[in-house]
């Protein structure tokens, strides 16, 4: 849970407001943190909740897409809306194809 952080369990407990014994249970895998505990831990460690929940290769942007989204973020608002609409259309098209393929197989 603390990963590469140099915080001790007690320092993490103090920073998050989560009792040190509970942190030990989380790190031992004996119990899973609540969403609120995950939020507190993420804030204390200056990380995203995703980094705590998903494995490295489970989620995340392809590097090329990441660069494209960075470029898109620099566009004027109207242009961003056009790109968003295009992406929404492509996603819906892809999902409907998947749904149709599953329906035909089933």
Write the layout of secondary structure elements.
Elements: H1 9-16, H2 20-28, H3 35-45, H4 49-53, H5 63-73, H6 77-105
General description of the model:
The mean pLDDT is 87. The protein has six helices and no strands. The chain starts with 8 loop residues before the first helix and ends with a helix. The protein folds into two domains: 45 residues, no CATH class; 43 residues. It is an all-alpha fold.
Can you describe this structure in just a few lines?
With 106 residues, the chain is an all-alpha fold. It contains six helices and no strands.
Task: Compute the number of strand runs.
Answer: 0
Distance between the termini: 41 Å
The biggest sheet amounts to: none
Number of helices: 6
Q: Which range does the strand content fall in?
A: under 5%
Structural class: mainly alpha
Residue share in helices?
A: 55-70%
Over the alpha carbons, how many angstroms does the gyration radius reach?
Answer: 20 Å
Low-confidence stretches: none
Mean pLDDT: 87
* Overall structural domain count: 2
The coarse silhouette is extended
Element-by-element helix/strand order: HHHHHH
Using brief descriptors, characterize the structure shown.
2 domains, 6 helices, 0% strand, mainly alpha
